[in-house]
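agent> Task received from the user: take the single chain below, predict its 3D structure, and emit structure tokens. No templates, no multimer pairing.
agent> Plan: (1) validate residues, (2) run structure prediction, (3) serialize to tokens, (4) report one or two observations.
agent> Step 1 OK, no nonstandard residues flagged.
tool_call: predict_structure(input=
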Amino acid sequence: AFDASVVHLDMHDVYGEVRTAVGKIDPDTQKTFDQQVAMVNQAAGFNIDTDLLQTLGETIVTYRAPISDAAIAPAAVLIKLRDPKTFSATLTKIEAKASAALKAMPPSIPVAMSLESRDVPGVGPVMIFHTAQASVAWTVHGDYLCVSTSEALKPIVDQVDHGTSSILDNADFARLYHALPAGVSSVAFRDPAKSYPELYRVTQGLAM
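)
tool_result: status=success, residues=208
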């Protein structure tokens, strides 16, 4: 990967801080906020805070590999999970509701979107969201939610299982990373030697 970032963010804490801030502004507004959240929970069939936000870990990793000759730039997002079992159950509910909503669209409204469940060798069950422009796939593997293309999930899963390589193998990143002060909540890195040639290839392709 030549483009990577790591963010530490606790979504449960963010939710709590938003609710507290609303209450400090106006207690009545906080009551309305709680009522609206309760309505959403009922409609969703799960508790957004306990069944979703609290199941997510604080570490979010994103990275992107160089564009291939097919002009595809595999990108990936990995989210560490506190409670993979509860998160998986919640994700299944979200997927079921999304699939039902897409199928319920009237024929008069063309929808170039679909959800597909597929078994990917070396990965296992994967859900894929297709649009006219692109597709994105995801699976829960171990303690991680892995999101990318269906083709790119296998090397991501291998990395999660075996850790065969690390961005710390890049000497430039390692030098900068170890020089960071304590308490940094996010880190982003891009390797110009790889990203600039890639940009050139993209612009050349668009010009043709």
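agent> Step 4: summary for the user.
The first strand starts at residue 3 and ends at 8.
agent> Done.
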